[in-house]
Amino acid sequence: FLVLYARKSAVIFAGNEGAVENLVAVAAPAKRIRRELYATWGVDLRLFNPNGLRAHAMPRQNVILFVGRLDEQKGIRQLLQAFVLVLGSVPNAKLVFIGAGPLADEVAEFARAHCIADKVRLLGPIPNCDLPPYFRAADVTTAPSVTMAWSAEQVCMVNIQSIACGTPVVTTASGSIPEFMENGVSGFIVPERDPTALAAAVTKLLTDDIVRRNLSTSCRR
Questions:
Q1: Quick one: pLDDT at residue 1?
Q2: Alpha-carbon distance 198 to 79, whole Å?
Q3: Under 8 Å between Cβ of 66 and 143
Q4: How far apart (Å, rounded) are the C-alpha atoms in residues 170 and 188?
Q5: Buried b (16+ CB within 10 A) or exposed e, 54-81
C-alpha cells in the first residue's frame, strides 16, 4: 500500500533505518522517503518514578534486572555470559529475570551448570502496573537486544520505564533504541552480541556509586 501511495505523489515518513530499508526493498521510490522522529506512548510518571515501595522479592544490593521475553532476540544468552564476567568483579551480584519465554529453561540450566543458581532468580511474568517496585530495587536494568535477520528491537519500553524510575540502563543500539536512549545520559549503549562490553558497563554501574547516582538523575530528567 505504501509503495503504491508513494508512486502517486505522497512522501513516505519512515521512522527508523529498518523502515527505510524495508521500503527500499519493496521498490518504494527513494526520493519520496523521508525519515522523521516518531513518537511512542510514554510512561505514567505518577506510577513509574523513583519514589515508593521497593519489591521485597528483589535482593538488597548489586541487583541486575532484566524485564522482557526470554528469547534469543532479547540477548538472553549474551546477558548470561556477561553475568559470569560481572561476578569476577562483583561476587555478590544478583541477576533477576522478569518475564517468560522459550529460553527460561536454558537460563535455569545455565545457572546450575555454572554453579550460580543462588545468584540467578526467575520471577516469571509480572503485570506492567506492578513493575515500578522492581525497577526501584534494581541497581541497573539490562536490555541487551540483538538484531535478527527478520527483526530488530523497536522502542524497548522497558528502557523508558526503568529510567523513569531512576534506574540506569545498559542496552544496545538494536533497532530504534538509540532514538530513545542516550549513551552516557540514560545509561550505557554497548555493541550487540558483546558479553565483554556488556559486563564492563554493568560492572561500572555496580562499582562506581558516583557514576550510578549521576546517571540515575540524568536518566530520570
A1: 47
A2: 7
A3: yes
A4: 5
A5: ebeebbeebbbbbbbebeebbbbbbbbb
pLDDT digits (tens, 9 = 90+) for 35-61: 665 556 789 999 999 999 999 999 999
Which residues make beta-bridge pairs with 96? 65, 121
CA–CA separation, 192 vs 194, rounded Å?
5
Rounded to whole angstroms, the Cα distance separating 28 from 37 reads 20
What is the rounded distance in angstroms from the CA atom of residue 46 to the CA atom of residue 22? Answer: 38
List Cα–Cα distances, 1 to 26, 27, 34, 101, 198, in angstroms: 11, 12, 17, 34, 40
Residue stretches of the chain with pLDDT short of 70: 1-18, 35-40
Q: Which residues contact 68 (CB under 8 A, 6 or more apart)?
A: 74, 98, 99, 143, 158
